[in-house]
Amino acid sequence: MPGITREEVAHLARLARLELKAEELDHFAGQLDDIIGAVARVSEVADQDVPPTSHPLPLTNVMRVDEVRPSLTPQQALACAPAQEQQRFKVPQILGEE
Amino acid sequence: MTVTELVSYEDALAAYDPVMGLEVHVELGTKTKMFCGCSTALGAEPNTQTCPTCLGLPGSLPVVNATGVESAIKIGLALNCEIAEWCRFARKNYFYPDMPKNFQTSQYDEPIAYNGYLDVDVDGEVFRVEIERAHMEEDTGKSTHVGGATGRIHGAQHSLLDYNRAGIPLIEIVTKPIVGAGEKAPEVAKAYVTELRELIKSLGVSEARMEMGQMRCDVNLSLRPRGVEKFGTRSETKNVNSLRSVERAVRFEVQRHAAVLDDGGTIIQETRHFHEEDGSTTSGRVKEEAEDYRYFPEPDLVPVAPTRAWVEELRGGLPELPRVYRNRLREEWGLSRHEMQSVLNAGAIDLITATIDEGAPADQARKWWMGELARRANEDGVELAALPITPAQVARVCALVKEGSLNDKLARQTIEGVLAGEGGPDEVVTKRGLKVVSDEGALGTAVDEAIAANAAIADKIRGGKVAAAGALVGAVMKATRGQADAARVRELILEKLGVEG
Ligand SMILES: [Zn+2]
Questions:
Q1: Is Protein biosynthesis included in the keywords of this UniProt record (chain A) (predicted)?
Q2: What three-state secondary structure class fits B398?
Q3: Hey, is the C-beta of A1 within 8 angstroms of any chain B C-beta?
Q4: Strands (E), B188-229
Q5: For residue A79, how far is its CA from the centre of ligand 1 (angstroms)?
Q6: CA-based Rg of chain A, rounded to a whole angstrom?
Q7: Is pLDDT above 50 for A98?
Q8: Fewer C-beta within 10 Å: chain B N or C terminus?
Q9: Which residues in chain B are closer than 8 Å to A15, comparing Cβ atoms?
């Protein structure tokens, strides 16, 4: 059974910007391995003739007409921002000292 | 960081064969964003065109813009692509504050259009660029970096985000590897982006103004030693945002790759930044692998399945494509393929057409845009259209020449004045006192003086050597500081000397 390695968990954690301790990596590697294993077993049953489901509803082409709708006011848009400046969302330094 | 000494372009091409890939993003000119009804109008105050959907707030749901899909299909058809019968959107996951959702809604392995081509003209020959795909996605917000030396992200203390642009529909058009361009690779790249821009404009789906960021190009380039089949490692130069820069970026990367390879080094697959000032590129971040984006089908949107009837209806409504249109103009204007290509490369087709529409003769309109004005644009390093002169003003200069109030030299000075911001052509003419000396009395005196001062030449002319009149015309033009109508001066000289012209 191809599971997930500790290194892969560390990589995913980095992509998700999660800081994991060494014991957490081991812990999650085990848990994720179980989940991947369970999905793999389902995949074994669902052969080529069963297409993967990406949406539960059999709908296509749900579209809207290109007409402008009212937007939020900037005050509303920024209401939940942890920090703001010059009517813009203020975010911490993007590039760390790498 | 080590600075590699560039290899000359000729030496690089002697040893290596360039392979290019071009990725062009086009911002569609729809009224609203791709997945919500927020306006896309330019120039709005920051964060005045956002809503729960484009801010990625919990509970919001995206709905696809029908015009966005229609535009994508039109672009696909114009690029001779197949149009997907069924395709989905996907989430491209990444953490960067320019997307408040922490993912960009894009298309991954199911683009709406694929397998096409675009024919471009290079040096009077047709070069076919194969298109891999054209897919739908959305633009990101705009960051302002604060605290860095020059507003750059490096060294910035914090950044400010305006999400007005986040969610504006984008079409990304990706070529297959472009091989066989050889030494013409920079020209092919420029010709492709030029042709694509013309195509997009003709479809009316975007104004595709590169200087406004409505069309942006990423240049992927690799070199392989001559005779080797396998592609080398590529670099990806991001945001090359003018036609001239596309050409320069390719040229620079060819020379840089060759230098690294000649040194026995290896090219790192990385993104690079292009610098307008000197046409160089510098290292950006090391490219994340596609799997790092953890693409998966967007569960909040249902598949797009354009009916064949709709696709055919759109195909039937495609306008005359630019190459066809250009050929028609070329014949009307009486130009060779080569001349027409120069006009296209200079970005002058619309300008010349507009100047003709303002009443100028075709040859005059072309003469000014491709001569004096192209020279100025080149000197200033700007696009022709960015020069501070309008087609109507150029047409007015042509009219002044035609009615005889300006000669060629004065017309050039008038244009110079307009470019310098001194006003419209008439204003410049008045302010600078640029009028052909048509006062017959003053002109007659100047002619008399020239004849008196050049008696020997005058005698020759009297004796029938009409060709010698040129010297006297020159003397008069000099005396009037170029402000006389040379043809009239010649007439007067011959008249006064009693010779038939
Ligand atoms: Zn919105």
A1: yes
A2: helix
A3: no
A4: 215-225
A5: 16
A6: 22
A7: no
A8: N
A9: 93, 95, 292, 294
**H helix intervals, B334-480:** 337-345, 349-357, 362-368, 374-380, 391-402, 408-419, 425-432, 440-453, 455-462, 469-479
Does residue A62 surpass a pLDDT of 80? yes
Residue owning tokens 């017959």: B440
pLDDT band at A1 (very low <50, low <70, confident <90, very high): very low
Domains recognised in chain B with CATH numbers: 9-293 (no CATH), 322-432 (no CATH), 440-496 (1.10.10)
Q: What is the mean pLDDT of residues B350-358?
A: 95
pLDDT at B4: 64
Rounded Cα–Cα distance for residues B229 and B234 (Å)? 15
Give how far A84 is from chain B: nearest CA, Å. Answer: 8
- The per-residue pLDDT for A97 is 40
Q: What is the CA radius of gyration of chain B?
A: 29
Q: How far apart are CA B29 and CA B207, in angstroms?
A: 7
The CATH number assigned to the domain holding A25 equals 1.10.20.60
Cα–Cα dist B158/B138, whole Å: 25
Pairing of strands B90-93, A63-64: unpaired
DSSP-assigned letter for residue B112: S
Residue-number span of the structural domain to which A29 is assigned: 1-48
Contact between A55 and B303 using a beta-carbon 8 Å cutoff: yes
- Min distance B403 CA to chain A CA atoms (Å): 50
CA B24 to chain A, closest CA, distance in angstroms equals 24
CA of B38 to the centre of ligand 1 (A): 4
Q: Does A17 touch chain B (CB under 8 A)?
A: yes
Q: What's residue B251's pLDDT?
A: 97
**pLDDT greater than 80 at residue B150:** no
pTM as predicted: 0.78
Establish if A96 touches chain B: CB-CB under 8 angstroms.
no
Would A23 be classed as within a structural domain?
A: yes
Tens digit of each residue's pLDDT (9 = 90 or more) over A7-41: 999 998 988 888 999 999 999 999 999 999 998 88
Looking at the predicted structure, is the pLDDT value of residue B118 above 70?
yes
Q: Which of B57, B136, B159 to mutate to test the interface with A (most CBs of A within 10 A)?
A: B159
For chain A, how many structural domains are there in total? 1
The closest CB to that of B305, out of A61, A73, A77, belongs to: A61
pLDDT digits (tens, 9 = 90+) for B38-53: 999 999 999 999 999 9
Using the CB atoms, write b or e for B69-86: b if 16+ within 10 Å.
Answer: bbbbbbbbbbbebebbee
Closest CA–CA distance from residue B66 to any residue of chain A (Å): 5
Minimum-distance CB partner of A71 among B38, B57, B154: B38
Residue B380 CA, distance from chain mean position: 15
Q: Does A77 touch chain B (CB under 8 A)?
A: yes
Kindly provide the ipTM of the predicted complex, given to two decimals. 0.84
Quote the CA–CA distance of B55 and B161 in Å, as a whole number. Answer: 11
Q: Is the residue at A65 inside a domain?
A: no
